[in-house]
């Protein structure tokens, strides 16, 4: 394909991906305040950690003591609903835009590389979802600490923009951070990062993960920082062990293929050689003894 054909195909893939995101964003916008297929509304599910706090830790201004968040500007509710719907739309459309990305890069890969790329896409999506789920679980503990640390002096009344912004940032930080071990495995498979280097750098990498968690978590609370750093440390150790196994297999294959010339062939491995047939010498006269 020429450069123009590549650009046209890229445009087509992007249009399909954007159309899928727009469609799923519409679903997310509706799901924000309505239940779908028996699932609770998206707004109710997201504000669950906040509403699980005791009433003494949050301001209750809604009628009948309901758990609601504040809106301080005319367009706050609409923009917040659109932002949450867009985030849900990108996640729901993940199979479509991942497939479009996969279909665009596949023709330029070898068969073995295609298999690896498909595995990386699947594992990467699973790691992102795992990180987001862990962030949602940690959020309840983080909020309980952040909103009750000074409860005897003040009470917190969060706006929807503040709460959902904190929640979405936490989900993204955990989800993207969980891709770090996958990057290490990819670099090891292509030969850029060996197990020996990872083993030597293990302590430094773990220390760096703790520093990263301290700055990356939006709330800077000890619960989310500790949860992110410990989870990344476990995933880092798993990726190091995977690199160890891969390097051992790679070394065995290299040793099997690199056989010295003076090494004797294994018993039973040589093929039998047929004895040579006699060929008469040209120009030599053969005399028959019985001739008279």
The total of helices stands at: 10
Q: Strand-residue fraction?
A: under 5%
The percent of residues in helical segments reads 55-70%
Q: What separation lies between the terminal Cα atoms?
A: 85 Å
Unreliable runs: none
Beta strands, count:
0
Could you tell me the mean pLDDT?
A: 77
> Structural class of the helix and strand makeup?
mainly alpha
Oligomer designation: single chain
Main pleated sheet? none
**Radius of gyration in whole Å, from Cα?**
32 Å
The backbone outline, from C-alpha atoms, is flat
What is the H/E order?
Answer: HHHHHHHHHH
Plain-language structure description:
This protein is mainly α. Helix content is 65%, strand content 0%. The chain is built from 10 helices and no strands. Helix 6 (111-148) runs antiparallel to helix 7 (160-177) and helix 6 packs antiparallel against helix 10. The longest helix is centred in the middle third of the chain and has 38 residues, at 111-148. The protein is flat, with a radius of gyration of 32 Å. The mean pLDDT is 77.
């Amino acid at each position: 394909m020429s450069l123009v054909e590549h650009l046209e195909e890229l445009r087509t893939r992007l249009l399909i991906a954007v159309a899928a995101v727009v469609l799923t964003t519409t679903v997310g916008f509706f799901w924000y305040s309505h239940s779908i297929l028996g699932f609770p509304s998206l707004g109710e599910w997201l504000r669950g950690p906040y509403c699980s706090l005791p009433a003494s830790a949050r301001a209750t201004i809604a009628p009948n003591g309901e758990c609601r968040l504040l809106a301080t500007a005319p367009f706050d509710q609409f923009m917040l609903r659109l932002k949450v719907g867009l985030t849900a739309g990108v996640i729901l459309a993940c199979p479509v835009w991942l497939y479009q990305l996969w279909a665009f890069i596949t023709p330029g890969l070898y068969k073995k590389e295609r298999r690896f790329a498909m595995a990386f896409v699947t594992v990467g999506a699973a790691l992102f979802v795992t990180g987001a789920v862990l962030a949602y679980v940690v959020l309840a503990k983080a909020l309980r600490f952040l909103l009750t640390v000074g409860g005897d002096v003040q009470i917190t009344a969060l706006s929807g923009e503040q709460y959902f912004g904190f929640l979405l940032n936490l989900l993204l930080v955990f989800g993207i951070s969980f891709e770090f071990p996958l990057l290490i495995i990819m670099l090891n498979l292509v030969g850029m990062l060996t197990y020996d280097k990872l083993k030597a750098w293990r302590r430094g990498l773990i220390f760096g993960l703790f520093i990263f968690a301290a700055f990356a978590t939006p709330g800077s609370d000890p619960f989310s920082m500790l949860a992110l750093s410990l989870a990344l440390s476990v995933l880092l150790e798993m990726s190091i062990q995977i690199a160890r196994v891969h390097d051992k297999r790679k070394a065995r294959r290299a040793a099997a293929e690199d056989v010295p010339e003076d090494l004797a062939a294994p018993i039973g491995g040589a093929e039998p050689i047929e004895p040579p047939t006699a060929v008469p010498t040209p120009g030599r006269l053969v005399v028959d003894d019985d001739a008279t």
